[in-house]
Amino acid sequence: MTRADKFTFSEKQLELYSDFMLDFSMHPITGLLARVTNEESIKQSIKNLILTTFTERPYHPLLGSKIKNSLFEMMDKGSESIIQRTVETSLKLEPRINLLAVEVTPHSIQHTYTIIVVFTSVNIPNQTFSVNVTVSLLR
User: Are β-strands 128-136 and 112-121 bridged in parallel, bridged antiparallel, or unpaired?
Assistant: First the structure.
């Protein structure tokens, strides 16, 4: 039988950031809304910033990116650089990260782009994290 106070403070992971899951799923034991913490919370926020278009969020019309407009352009190096600059500009609004790199890979058969964002957290500077986001015309 384990005790609730089994873990000491030094063994617990410190929660710096916390968000609800996007699908609003319930925690199976507590019945409360499930959460994501720390780097998973930041990754979720990065995906939201990339996939949100301008004026989509009430009271925050400048939050998001215009990446969906670039999906109707020809798939060449110019559109890749436009998408890369768009992602870099939109991620400047995320104060919890230090952006290291944005890589854009086109997939011409499916007409999709895979965006890889490499970053470090402001409060966890020694670790590097990455997020893969696939953007397509259909969701």
Answer: antiparallel
Percent of the chain with pLDDT over 90: 32
Three-point CA angle 69, 113, 86, nearest 5°: 50
Q: How is residue 117 written in tokens?
A: 């964002």
What is the pLDDT confidence band of residue 119, given thresholds at 50, 70 and 90?
very high
* Confidence (pTM): 0.79
Residue 70 tokens read as: 């670039």
**What single-letter DSSP state applies at residue 53?**
P
Q: Which of the 8 DSSP states describes residue 73?
A: S
Give the start-to-end residue ranges of the domains of the chain. Answer: 47-136
CATH code that applies to domain 47-136: 3.10.450.40
Q: What pLDDT is recorded for position 1?
A: 44
Q: Give me the DSSP letters along 94-113.
A: -TTEEEEEEEEEEETTTTEE
Cα separation, 113 vs 116, in Å, equals: 10
Burial 26-37 (b: 16+ CB within 10 A, else e): eeeeeeeeeebe
Tell me if residue 93 falls in helix, strand or coil: coil
